[in-house]
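pinned: reference chain
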Amino acid sequence: MGRRNITPVSDFILMGLTDSEEIQLVLCTLFLLIYLITVLGNVGMILIICLDSQLHTPMYFFLSHLSFLDLSYSSVITPKTLDNLLTFIKNISYTNCFTQMYCFVFLRATECFLLSSMAYDRCVAIRNPLHYSVVMSARRCCSLVFGSYLFGFTDSIVNALCMNKLHFCDSNVIYHFFCDVPPVLALSCIDTRDIEITISIFAGSTLVVSLITISVSYVSILSTILKITSTSEKQKAFSTCASHLLGVTIFYSTMVFTYLKPRKSYSLGKDQVASVFYTIVIPMLNPLIYSLRNKEVKNAVSRVIQKRKASKQLK
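pinned: its structure tokens
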């Protein structure tokens, strides 16, 4: 009988980041600039890796998928955020809201496992360089990437099954700038403890398993580097991992801060800042981190430009 009195919700209202029109305009300009850099950086990275044959290695194969994921989940969040900042209508339909949430969970979980695969790749490259091409064969690389997407899809399906049990009756106002799990759960007018526990177990397992894999890989890498006597070889080994380690640190620090805590400790301001960082800023930073610190990428860009110039001259 209780469920018959629940009025179905057809749409939600995203409250966004601020009520000030001046700040909204500043944020809109800033986020638009960041999104353009994100698109150019990640699409550029994918194209360079595809066009330059010298970058057809396991590390850049993983990096191309990382760029695809960053581009995808930035595109899932940022355009709607820009629309909300520019207009007075903050509505998002029920279907679009949950689609945004499921896509974000899928892409976020997939990136966790992809970063773990990249850490394993770096571990093999430093610990066993002579057999690197054999261990990291094309088949294994494809299996690792497929497994990352599969685990991400599983996490998203579990999330969808749990969130579909929710009912909304008191309010449809989401105090966030996108449809994330914690603020949507907060709107439900049924007891969500079992749903929260299930989602937390899967989300926590994703973070913990991927973090353990990355940690074990880097402990192994560090132990190998410490055994190297040559200073130049040590620096070369460190530089091989520096970009990935920096990207992992930034990504996981914000994720852990936001999700591995009780819902009662949810803080609108702090969580929104963290969410802006990992949904909008990090997808822009990753291609910069991996390209600016990488001579191979810079050289590949030069080779691609020279090839295009040469082809134009032949025409």
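why pinned: Residues 1-5 have pLDDT under 50 and may be disordered. The longest strand covers residues 11-14.
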